[in-house]
Amino acid sequence: MPDLFTVAGVVEQRGQETIAPGAELLRGFALPFVREFLPALCVIAAQAPFRHMTTQRGAMMSVGMTNCGEMGWLSDRSGYRYDRIDPETGRPWPAMPKCFRALATSAGKEAGYPGFVPTACLINRYTPGTQAVAASGQGRARRCAPDRLGFAGVAGDLPVRRAEAPRSGEEVAGLAR
Fold it and tell me: Per-residue pLDDT tens for 85-108?
């Protein structure tokens, strides 16, 4: 299955880049998982549909989100948090597929975290025109994540706009790449 870079005729070198202390960008690392990843994503979305969450201030987020794993990340008027129950379905979040777990574990090892065990997976769906804001997550993780919460992210490139983050001190403006 071709990736977005191949379809667009873009050639990008695979490799590792430190983007912040403790955060690594592993270019092209997820490509070997694509055949398993996409059907698994469809199963997750059928059980826990993508939704547009709201911020504590009541603004609707432009990115569609869902979760899988032991816990899911939520945002609403009461703030950011992790929860075992999907508030829209009233059921636990779908189990993390083996291919998601394998990718996250392998990426953790490659990034210097050999004992990494993923327990939560936030899945963002960016569509053309979606605003992207990179969150530091450090303050949020300390407040609402249980001990040893494991999280890894996978992102593909789609056209998005850069957005200025709220001046909360916890989020910074970022590029969706």
Answer: 999 999 999 999 999 999 989 988
